[in-house]
Amino acid sequence: MADLKKGSIGEEALTYAYLLLYIALSSGQIFFNKWVLSSKQINFPYPLGLTLLHMVFSSVVCFILTKVLKIMKVEEGMTAEIYATSVVPIGAMFAMTLWLGNTAYLYISVAFAQMLKAIMPVAVFLLGAMAGLEVMSCRMLFIMFVISFGVLVASYGEINVNWIGVVYQMGGVVGEALRLIFMEILVKRKGLKLNPISVMYYVSPFSALCLFIPWIFLEKPKMDEASWSFQPVVLALNSLCTFALNLSVFLVISHTSALTIRVAGVVKDWVVVLLSALLFADTKLTVINIFGYGIAIAGVAAYNNYKLKKEASRASPDEARQDQASTTATLIPQKTDL
Q1: How far is C-alpha 170 from the geometric centre of its chain's CA atoms?
Q2: Are 198 and 75 in contact (CB under 8 A)?
Q3: H or E, element range at 113
Q4: Which PANTHER family match (predicted)?
Q5: In sequence order, what DSSP letters do the residues of 8-22 get, joined into one string?
Q6: How far apart, in whole angstroms, are the C-alpha atoms of residue 52 and residue 55?
Q7: Spatial distance between the Cα atoms of 217 and 225, rounded to a whole number of angstroms
Q8: Separation between Cα atoms, residue 122 and residue 128, nearest integer Å
Q9: What's the CA gap between 270 and 70, in Å, rounded?
């Protein structure tokens, strides 16, 4: 009994450690990206180039881990038809999400960007309903209204609103919502379950290609003309943190559940909003900001709770555990955050 109790305590401590690691990496990556793009010391205001670097780094590391060192396995079942109809649009939307989300940091504060991201469930629900994946109901419409109202109140309370940044951030939200829709189609309709390494292995190269083409025309000429100091150590560390964030998501999902990762995500959002007010001079939180964001987060929590109860009612315990692998694939991204 004593050994069992000791083992249970140790497992619980390990779970909390994974949760803290996820929250720390996710929050830290957002601040790291903002610093790299905005710092006068680094002088690297190239969000497209930074995102391209992340995708190339992930592609190389995944190839080394799976094909060279063979430490991790890529699930079988990927066909040319699935790649063309699912991985290609997922990769394109992932590239769009990261590019536009990172660009928004050049115009708006981290806190305000995080508040705007709270509208994500609304975009996912509306696009999902259009794709036949969601069903309209009075309860869901009310939850969508609460989230939208909260984001509007938070935006109204923003002192320095830069609408260019808002457009970039909302474009990133739409891209992420489309990515999640395509991911759900890939997992549920085509029956392909992928762990994070597999997702990055397939998606990252195409995302890099999608970013490389506009980078040649939009940022490469500016980088050739500008006097900027390339800092390989800083940029490599930034890319490594992005990759580590995706792995931390897998660790949390493996040891807990989808509900836990979503709750941890809400905690992370508040950590980012509050810490950004202390770390960055361009962040000035108002009472209206915090009040509106609180309303939006309450709506997000209600949405997550509703979705998880609905999923649990349709799946047996064994199926639910098996679905965690597919849930991992759906959750990956947030995290290169953007």
Answers
A1: 14
A2: yes
A3: helix 110-117
A4: SOLUTE CARRIER FAMILY 35 (PTHR11132)
A5: HHHHHHHHHHHHHHH
A6: 5
A7: 13
A8: 10
A9: 38
